[in-house]
Structure formats: structure tokens, C-alpha cells
Amino acid sequence: MLRCAAQRASGDRPSGLGSVRQRSGRGAGRAGGALRSGGRGPAAVLRMRAGAAAGGSAFPLGEWVTRIQMALLNRRLGLSLTHLSGTVIQRHFSITGACRAIQKLTRVRVVDNSALGNTPYHRPPKCIHVYNKTGVGKVGDTILLAIKGEKKKALIVGHKMPGPTMTPRFDSNNVVLIEDNGNPIGTRIKTPIPCILRQREGKVSKVLAIARNFV
Amino acid sequence: MAAACGRLVPRSAVAGLPARCFSFSGYRSNSDGKPAKFQPPPKPVIIDKQKQREERRFLSPEFIPPRGRTDPLKYYIERKDMIQRRKVFSIPEFYVGSILAVTTADPYASGKVNRFVGICIQRGGKGLGATFVLRNVIEDQGVEIRYELYSPRIQAIEVLKLEKRLDDNLLYLRDALPEYSTFDMNMKPVSHLEHEEIPVNKLQVRMKPKPWSKRWERPKYNVKGIKFELPEKKMQEAQKWSQPWLEFDMLREYDTSKIEEKIWREKDLQS
């Protein structure tokens, strides 16, 4: 029964929470055969509530599981699921820091005011291809981005890797979404853009037209 | 005695006093026998502390050659070129932690000049390739630019606020809260008087939550300007990586006092 519940829940909820969910399911199972019937109730409740919550917002689990319920659950299951208690679930897996220059699978930050770039999604926008002979993208290169389940081209406007002297180095890998013909999707760019971009005429000029600050 | 009161004029220089006399007062006589006019003893020169501070000169760190077995002629020639450039373009005295405004010539910038204001977080390189990195946070985006001191593209370097910090490099500002790296682009220069000591800003910076780009709590970085809000256990665990023998390592010693004196003598001869 427990396993069925887990599978059903996994079907509903997005995969990002897979590890957390499976941990709670397996933990409940490990509590022992005697507790299984008792553990099924609150554990299933936890998962189903989380499932209902995750479908709507980007902050699952935390909104629905209150501290009192967590305490009861802990006592019932005989485990400490303290890492799940509290309004904010802390995910105990490590992520690499921001990639220095942009290559495949780099998480980037979209800096224009387009709807596609600014709506929250459970996965950060990632580079899946760099239109370059080398696979490393620097300022002014076009890349292919995977955003919200769709592919979009983007222009790199700043990266964390130090470039030639006198050029700015940003604290995050910045990118502006563009169409295939070079037209930017957004209408304004608030973040500073390096002046070196002006060297490349062509598709870049339309992006420079909507930029506000130059460094 | 002459060495002890070094500022006093030596006795042999005083006119009309034969070298065999052992006191200033007493018998003074001219060559024709008449009593000489009373000559007051030389006034001792008062050493003024302010003047001493004026005479304290700042030697930019890129003048000091790195420790190695390279022929010193190479560094001598480079220093000559550096002094030539400094005659044409004034490079002010600044330290890590000072706020600078740099104007560079940029063919791709509007108006052909580009002005950037930021805090100096690092000074690197020796000789003509000396660089410094300025950091600022513009529109919630941290920007760092590395400038070459002796590049002909630099039009002006202006020190807006001259001050020192507790550390030699402030790379930890990347992991600190952005308010510590934000400076107004149109900041007015803060006046600094010539004879005053360089103020040391004992600011302790608060950090963003971990992970940081470097583990700043480790003794290897020897950071004094961070207010660590980590638990005591983590701080003690960081001390496991301490290398207390390093400060006694004689091969790592580099005494630059004699080298600096030599460089000052060269500079005085050339300028």
C-alpha cells in the first residue's frame, strides 16, 4: 500500500522532490512491520497533502505540514524527520557554484524583463548548446537555452569568468533571450552590459538598444 | 657626540672657532687679538613630527621586485619606464580598501570615455604589468574590473576615499552582503590631508549564508575583516588546517627594507 501511494504521488508531483519523498517513504517502511499500519496513515497524509500543494505552487510541503503535525508524525513513526519540519524544507544535497564561462548545462540568469525569463519555474534555465567552434561561450556569443520546457536562443552579456583586462567581470552568468533573427524578446535590460558588446554589430545592436546601463 | 645630536651643526663648520678649543664659551679671539663678537651657540633643530610624516614616502608595491634569481637589470630598466610614465600621468597613492574612480578611453563606449567607481579589492602584478581590481554593485549585479596601472588607455585615476582595511585583499567581499560593495557612481571625493596618517577602516563585514567561493574561516586566508557568525564548532574545525610553522619558515622571509632604500635612491636620481 505504501509503495502504491508513493508511485501515485510521484506521478503527480514534479521530479525535483523525488529524493525527499522517497526518503520519507523508505523511512516509514524501515520503522518496522508493527508500525507499518500506524505509519501508513500520517505518512500517506503527508505525501498526499504535499502532492496537492506541489501541483499549485513552487513551495511544496512547507505550506501544508505544520510543526504540530510533524511532531505527531515523528512520535508516531519513531523517527526524527526534523529535517522536514519547519516551514522551509532544507534540501541536503550540494550544488556546484556558478559556472565560470558558459558551456552546456550551465545554469544562467536571464536579465531582461521578458515573461519567459522572469516567471518562476522549478528548474533554472540551462544552456544546452553554444553556437561556437569551442563549446565555451563568452560575451557576445549565442547559446541555446532550455527554459520552462522550451528551447530558446539567448545572447551572453556577462559571465563569471575573468576576461581580458579592462573588461568587466560579473558575479553571475547573465543572458538575454533573443529570437532566431536576433530580436530580443524583452523590452528593457536593467543590469549593466559590457561596452565590448558594441564591437559586434548585427544582432547585438537590437539588444544594445534596449539596454540601460553600460559598464 | 656629533652622531648623537645629528641635527646640530658640527663644530668645525662654525666660523672662527679653532678646532683645538674644547668649549664653545670661553676664550674666543680673532687673529688680531681683539675679543670676537659673541656668537650664539647653534640652535638645535626641533624635529617636527608633522614634517617627519611628510618625509614618510609611499612606495607603490609594484616597484618592489619579486623574490627570485632574475637579473636585477631587468627590474631596473622596468622601473625606469615606470618612472617615465609616472612623470606624464599621475598615479595617486592608494591601498586595498580605497574607493577609486577610473576613467578609461574606450572606443566602444558612448563619449569614448568610460568611468567606473569601485573599491579596490586587490593589487597584483609587479613592474609595468601591475593591476588593481575595482568592485562595485550596480543594479544588484556585482561587477569587478581589473585595470592595468600603466596602461595608456587609462585617462585618469581619482582617489575618492583613501583608506586601508584590515586585510591585504578583500576578495571575500564577493561572498559578503552586497551593501558592503555598493558605492555611488557619483560619489564626491572625501578630502584627505597630506600629513594625516592613512585611516584604517576596522569594518567587520557580514557574510551571505554559506557556501562561499572560498572557505574564508580557514587560517590560510588569515582574514580579519569578517564577522564570522558560524558556530564555535565550525571555527574550531577550521583551525585543523592551520600551519603554525609557516611564520617561522626562514626560506619564505623577504625583507624588502634594503631593496626599498635602493629604489628610493634610484628614484631621487631620476626625478
TrEMBL record, chain A:
Name this polypeptide is given: Large ribosomal subunit protein uL14m
Keyword GTP-binding: no
Gene Ontology MF terms in the entry: structural constituent of ribosome
GO cellular component: mitochondrial inner membrane; ribonucleoprotein complex; ribosome
CDD domains listed in its UniProt record: Ribosomal_uL14
GO BP term, example: translation
Record SMART domains: Ribosomal_L14
Transit peptide as UniProt keyword: yes
Organism the protein comes from: Falco tinnunculus
Region (Disordered): 1-40
Subcellular location(s) of the protein: Mitochondrion
Protein family membership: Belongs to the universal ribosomal protein uL14 family.
Entry-linked Pfam families: Ribosomal_L14 (PF00238)
TrEMBL record, chain B:
GO terms of biological process kind: translation
InterPro entries (alphabetical): Ribosomal_bL19, Ribosomal_bL19_sf, Translation_prot_SH3-like_sf
Localization, UniProt: Mitochondrion
GO molecular function ontology, one term from the record: structural constituent of ribosome
GO CC annotation: mitochondrial large ribosomal subunit
Keywords assigned: Mitochondrion, Ribonucleoprotein, Ribosomal protein, Transit peptide
Primary localization: mitochondrion
SUPFAM superfamilies per UniProt: Translation proteins SH3-like domain
PANTHER family linked: LARGE RIBOSOMAL SUBUNIT PROTEIN BL19M, RIBOSOMAL PROTEIN L19
Family: Belongs to the bacterial ribosomal protein bL19 family.
Name under which the protein is recorded: Large ribosomal subunit protein bL19m
Organism the protein comes from: Falco tinnunculus
Lineage: Eukaryota, Metazoa, Chordata, Craniata, Vertebrata
